[in-house]
Amino acid sequence: MHKLTRHHSEPTEHFASRARRRAVATALAPLLAATTSLLISPATADATVRHTHHRAAAHTSGHHASKRPAHRKTTSAPHATAIHGSRGAVALRFAVAQLGKPYRWGATGPGSYDCSGLTQRAWRAAGVSIPRTTQAQARFGTPVPLSRIQPGDLVIFYANASHVGIYAGHGKVIVAPHRGKAVSYALMRWMPIYAIRRPG
């Protein structure tokens, strides 16, 4: 009698276990489907990240562009200074081309120069007529403070305005120095400055 009862109970338990597993599977099916929908391939994920980053960058760029002030065209110097800059550059280029030519008193080129003859010819090349002598050049044009000196300006030296050169930048002038010397660069700090004049 005991064996018969046991024989009939085992199938019952088996069917009950299967029924429980089926019920659990049925209950978990929606959850598994949702989880599966969230799983994407690495390529898809990378593309999604790139797309998101691109949209964020475009938004940021547009935001900064809207904040950026409108470009305004400005000039660093007045028109008159710009004109002098071009003429002064021409005068300086002429003086540079004379480097190495001998000094000769009273000479105005093209083979030799004295100091004021060199400066007069340099500015004539720039289209500006200036006086012949150093003393007259010291009174010609616009006075310029040392802090505003520009290439091409005339630099007159010594208390009696006896020497003149063309400013070449970096504290140097181009001069026709004296007999026995050639047109060359000279340091301004070795000569006392009498005046700085801007012809054009």
From TrEMBL:
The keyword Metal-binding does not apply. It comes from Actinocrinis puniceicyclus. Keywords: Hydrolase, Protease, Thiol protease. It comes from the Bacteria. Residues 50-82 are annotated as: Disordered. GO terms for biological process: proteolysis. Residues 85-200 form the NlpC/P60 domain. Pfam families: NLPC_P60 (PF00877). InterPro entries: NLP_P60_dom, Papain-like_cys_pep_sf, PG_Endopeptidase_C40. Belongs to the peptidase C40 family. Residues 50-74 have a biased composition (Basic residues). One of its GO terms (molecular function) is cysteine-type peptidase activity. This is C40 family peptidase.
